[in-house]
Amino acid sequence: MNNSETAKSIAVIGAGVAGIVAAHLLSRKHRVTLIESNSYVGGHTNTIDTFNEDRALVRVDTGFIVLNDKTYPTFHRFLAALGVEVRFSDMSFGYECKTTGLKYSGHNLLTLFAQPKNLLSPVYLKFLNDIKRFCKLGQHLLPQLGPDTTVREFCREHQLNEFFQRHYLIPMAAAIWSAPDEGIRDFPIKTLLLFFRNHGLLSLNDRPRWQTVIGGSKSYVESFLKSFNGKVLTNSPVSSVCETEQSVNVRLMEGRELSFDAVVLALHADLALKVLENPSNLQKRLLKPWSYQRNKTFLHDDPSFLPSNRLARASWNYRRTESLAQKDAVFVTYDMNRLQGFKCKRNFLVTLNPVEPIDDANIIQEFNYDHPVFDTSSVQTQPELDKLNQEGRIQFCGSYFGYGFHEDAVASAAKIGALWGETL
Questions:
Q1: What is the pLDDT of residues 338-359, one digit of tens each?
Q2: Distance between CA atoms of residues 312 and 118, nearest Å
Q3: Is residue 59 situated within a structural domain?
Q4: Residue 107 belongs to a domain with what CATH number?
Q5: Looking at residue 149, what is its pLDDT?
Q6: What is the maximum span of the chain, computed from C-alpha positions, in angstroms?
């Protein structure tokens, strides 16, 4: 069916970046309807228009924020096809622990010793040495690791102490995957190390240069919508998807039923399984292990959510508090002025799961974003996920096919395009 010269009717359900790319490719030769439950197209690409202190317009990203010049090749091709440009960004990680008072930033040697007393601290110097040892262990042992070993087990086996885990490894990984402490401890170490290696986090050399989309990430969504020749249905949550011998029937929550020759489910894995009326054994086996972590996200302008020590401030700022338990969601603040290069006095900050309340007067907007949970059960499905697109009229794409990021979503959608004879 995919290689037929006859134009097909295709529904792409889910208008995050995976659905956008799938719709972009399939609409070249087919009649595509893009269906989205939200009021906007973009998913985690959600740029908010607000104003600086001079009432000049500022477009602030809140979900998807950064890409880089090394590990986002498919997404870069998509941006180029749309004529959307990027700029280089300041990417750095900062840490603050309210319990111990520890503060540092990895930006340079000065910020690493944001607290001068740590120059003579045996505990801190051992901590830095443990980071170095972890990086060497990761590079050396990565080829030997299987998919079942967790971060917790790896650290125990190699005597990486709690101070190192609590103040570096877990905060760094938690900030990357928007996951709680306990989720990182149960994270497959091989997946973590592969990501760290590919992004230059196991060495000081060959690190990618991080970038943001000029004009905010929704610039690419706007460009896509201008060129898209299909239909877009927003505010249209889907209640069920049922495959028959001749078609796929899509029922909307409002009660309307639509019929298509094929359907692409560009949804989170758990939602994809939920809408399937009669999932196959393969679909159930590969989608059921996936769950998602909800992160309450605030766009605000309260600078107290940045480290009090300016040397410890960074683009990504992880804060550990006394009330933050192992299973609590990650508490991290992104400095959007640094990341997007805003030259204004007003601080534009994006904070996930604030333990301390943000004053209503400082809140610009709030959101919920769901991120895939990577554990040994879900990661074990990944080598087989492409099999989902080898049977029937329903196909799947999303960031869960990879590490959970924009590039992974785009790459999975590009594979679907290739099945239909279309490439970026």
A1: 999 999 999 999 999 999 999 9
A2: 13
A3: no
A4: 3.90.660
A5: 96
A6: 73
